[in-house]
Write a structure and sequence with these properties.
Rossmann fold; binds D-galactaro-1,5-lactone; two-stranded parallel ribbon; alpha/beta; 7-stranded parallel beta sheet; 9 strands; 266 residues; binds 1,4-dihydronicotinamide adenine dinucleotide
Length: 266
């Protein structure tokens, strides 16, 4: 079933804005965020909703076919905030989707769910999590919440381990991790229409230096068009500062608060 009515959480954020601009007109969009936002486009409506409020989330999920779940904290911070917005928020979202009979959920996971893997290792969506931060762990947990609701409750779940979704790469690491905004939209279109049960894919463009085997996404129809390599001359010399950041997939998240043993990481 191709969805018509789509709920977009985190709609006031950076990636929410990208999707709003490109999906508006194709779908009836319900825009939701904890901060106010105005519905201006045709077929748009807006809702203020804190993802930690289970009853409000349940109401927000009614009468939609699909949910794109971008809402949450996108950086490293303390447990109370991450627990509330990212873990409780994602559980509430899936539970609301189940109660409302929603067909599919696209979950914005992150490369930081696997950030402690060395970057000379090609990972796929089947590679096990190795979170580089509390934030990365919230994304790994979100992928498991997605699996519970897919296999136990029949909600199609598409988890995007997004790399670096920026207008253009800003350093050498991003030549591997970059997801252009246009390719992000292409991947979301796949998530909204393809046939899958519980799929984990990487949100990455067709970068020459990509660390990720994204064949599962290609099988489902993802055809990325952009390659960060065209920016290599501009940003290829901009290296991350520490050895840990340069050698492990999570970049700067890896050395932050690191108190582990380097020899365990390979
Ligand atoms: P953003 O911070 O611009 O947007 C997130 C939105 O979530 C904000 O508008 C915020 O108000 C909302 N939010 C936070 N806590 C909330 C709560 N308790 N209830 C309701 N709404 C809440 O972040 P961005 O960059 O747009 O990222 C979107 C998603 O994609 C995030 O989940 C992030 O972790 C993920 N992601 C983004 C990447 C990127 O390169 N931008 C890379 C990897 C993952
Ligand atoms: C993420 O998950 C963050 O939300 C984003 O701000 C970037 O840090 C990105 O990953 C990245 O790894 O570049």
């Amino acid at each position: 079933m191709t969805p018509k009515r789509v709920l977009l959480t985190g709609a006031a954020g950076l990636l929410g804005g990208v999707l709003r601009r490109s999906l508006g007109g194709q779908f009836q969009l319900r825009l939701a965020d904890i901060v106010p936002l105005e519905a201006t486009g045709e077929g748009e409506e807006s809702i203020i909703c804190d993802l930690a409020d289970a009853a409000a989330v349940e109401a927000m999920c009614e009468d939609v076919d699909a949910i794109i779940h971008l809402g949450g904290i996108p950086y490293e911070t303390g447990w109370p905030e991450l627990l509330r917005s990212n873990i409780i928020g994602t559980i509430n979202l899936y539970e609301g989707a189940r109660r409302a009979g929603v067909d599919r959920v696209l979950f914005a996971s992150s490369n930081h769910a696997t950030g402690m893997h060395p970057n000379d290792r090609a990972l796929s969506g089947e590679s096990p999590p190795r979170p580089d931060s509390r934030y990365g762990l919230t994304k790994a947990i979100g992928e498991d919440v997605a699996a519970l609701y897919a296999y136990k409750h029949g909600i199609r779940s598409f988890c995007l381990r997004i790399g670096s979704c920026l207008p253009k790469p800003d350093n050498k690491r991003a030549l591997s991790t970059w997801l252009s905004q246009a390719d992000f939209v292409r991947l979301v279109q796949v998530g909204l229409t393809a046939d899958y049960v519980h799929e984990i894919v990487y949100g990455v463009s067709r970068n020459t230096r990509s660390w990720w085997d994204n064949s599962a996404a290609f099988r489902l129809g993802y055809q990325p068009q952009d390659d960060a390599e065209i920016y290599a001359a501009e940003v290829g010399a901009i290296e991350l500062k520490t050895e840990l950041a340069r050698n492990y997939q999570g970049g700067n998240f890896v050395p932050e608060e690191f108190s582990g043993r380097k020899e365990w990481l390979d």
